[in-house]
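step=encode ok
step=design start
structure_in=
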């Protein structure tokens, strides 16, 4: 986004930091909306799964409904917060002041990655950061168990983990490249926080953009993956990153020669544990949401 040109002469010009923080807040709002998209499937699943007693069935439906209600409430509260209102008002004022900002004529910005940028610069306060991420606390035993299950289920995966250091490494071949994922877990403020980074072994020339694409897919994580077993399944889904076709355009490479490096949980047609991650190009996924 070329804000300097677009807003030249505007007395209400924001600083670069204000723009990054605003884009990060919009990204977090989008993330809350994304999380609501699985609701119809979750409802259907909660009414059709086997229950021992009517009470158990009711409990399942009620839990699903309450989670959805909380998600909608959270989205609406954030959407009407002073911080988001300020962004809408600023955007409106800028469009009025400069007709070149008409959406049909203006430039586009990346949809994701702003939360990371804002965090790097220390722009988000802890409260805002923690609203969006963090899963249930993870004990050392649970971590060992999840890792042991992983290598049992996928014998072609090479994995090592150090529960005291709260760190795990997972590597496997993805067609022509060997990917190595590093997962760190931090229990803090009654929540577990996950960080995932990916590299190739040995480092291969020309893979930087490809790996950066996967890294950004992890940092944005549109589906709720803040528990270790689900996160590990997401990692495993990258085994096909150089051969899988995008779920939307059905091509391996998009027009800009990007791989389908985004992974999202597929629709609910089976119990949650069996849901699979589907590959998408970021451009196709963003287009489908627009
Ligand atoms: Zn595509």
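sequence_out=
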């Amino acid at each position: 986004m070329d804000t300097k040109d677009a807003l030249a002469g505007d007395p209400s010009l924001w600083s670069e930091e204000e723009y990054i923080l605003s884009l990060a807040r919009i990204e977090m709002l989008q993330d809350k909306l994304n999380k609501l998209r699985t609701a119809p499937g979750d409802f259907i699943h909660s009414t059709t799964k086997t229950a021992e007693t009517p009470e158990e069935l009711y409990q399942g439906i009620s839990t699903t409904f309450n989670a959805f209600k909380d998600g909608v409430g959270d989205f609406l509260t954030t959407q009407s917060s002073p911080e988001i209102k300020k962004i809408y008002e600023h955007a409106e004022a800028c469009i009025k002041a400069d007709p070149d900002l008409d959406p049909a004529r203006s430039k586009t910005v990346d949809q994701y990655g702003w939360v990371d940028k804002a965090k790097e610069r220390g722009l988000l306060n802890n409260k805002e950061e923690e609203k969006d991420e963090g899963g249930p606390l993870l004990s050392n035993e649970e971590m060992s168990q999840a890792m042991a299950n992983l290598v049992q289920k996928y014998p072609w995966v090479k994995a090592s983990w150090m529960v005291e250091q709260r760190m795990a490494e997972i590597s496997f071949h993805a067609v022509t490249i060997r990917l190595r994922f590093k997962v760190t877990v931090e229990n803090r403020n009654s929540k577990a926080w996950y960080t995932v980074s990916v590299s190739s072994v040995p480092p291969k020339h020309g893979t930087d953009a490809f790996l950066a694409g996967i890294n950004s897919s992890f940092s944005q994580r549109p589906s709720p993956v803040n528990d270790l077993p689900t996160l590990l399944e997401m990692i495993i889904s990258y085994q096909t990153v150089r051969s899988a076709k995008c779920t939307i355009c059905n091509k391996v490479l998009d027009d800009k020669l990007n791989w389908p490096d985004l992974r999202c949980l597929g629709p609910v047609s089976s119990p949650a544990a069996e849901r699979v991650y589907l590959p998408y190009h970021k451009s196709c996924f963003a287009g489908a949401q627009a």
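step=design ok
step=annotate ok -> The two ends are 19 Å apart (CA to CA).
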